């Protein structure tokens, strides 16, 4: 689970400050304020560690099939007017209960531009703690592309060579590892742990693909759900048709939440004749219809529900606008889904949303003591003269907000007062 995130001179952000990430973290704010950038920074690192080119230091994208975003060039990522011309990404993570040598760590990298125009790491540091002893490894860029290696608080480097250049942002070359000697093995384990944490991020974007009328099942479980959720149906088919101890577990869980949201009574997978094709049908108020023929809200929320039970325990799910095309009750139930799944499956949710109903229900869950302010966090992002600004929204133990930005969700009480005022004025005129 991710614990902290900080960006400096990254797109709209001069400095986010240290952003604490909880099991359920909600990002709210105005349009084009910088909310999505917080999520994109993590996906930038994910697509870098998954790059087939191990020598790349930061993969800004361009491969439509394999990359999450195309960030363009260095200038498109660097905040305008930044001095020095460097941007920084830093995060920490923790995997409690995992039987691994390294179950927590911190990553920090500062990026600049090489003479060729490519992105080049200026400084990369990985930190961890093993048996209450801290370890730190750092690579610093020198002249002509050489990198110096430092271990812990050593002031003297272990050498400076071009062959020591970091790979995929989070690793050192085999030559650098060998040069570190006995410290190299721990450094290698640490970079592998950071890589696993980034590879384990699951992202579902705001635009989900419309369903097909029927599907061919390839008799396997997909490895991913896709950024547009197009593999969600394959996950449900595998849940219904694969013979295992967990058969129907995901399908039944999704059906249960659809019922709680009052958008469907049940979801069912049906074989079409004796063919290898299957359809997903929705039961609602005694009517059975193909998924393609029901309201778009069902098909749009289906990947959101599916990813909650598809994500491996302990992973982090990044969601943008999960509430799209849902009615108010269904939107509010998403808050209950995130809190419930984060508790039972240890899945972390980082959610970018515009939904007042989702936000208000999370307040209620705090008031009901279903969750606590230690388990959820809410941030408001707004655009200022100097760039994006982040405000942590403070809830008390009764779910009351102490520092809500004016009129973000509109002035509900003000609208009610205005309506009452106009009603009385109109009735007064009508009685004359």
From TrEMBL:
Lineage per the UniProt record: Bacteria, Pseudomonadati, Pseudomonadota, Betaproteobacteria, Burkholderiales
Boundaries of every ATPase AAA-type core domain copy: 24-358
InterPro entries attached to this UniProt entry: ATPase_AAA_core, Bact_Antivir_Def_Nuclease, DUF3696, P-loop_NTPase, P-loop_UCP034888
Domain DUF3696: 374-419
Protein name: DUF3696 domain-containing protein
Molecular functions (GO terms): ATP binding; ATP hydrolysis activity
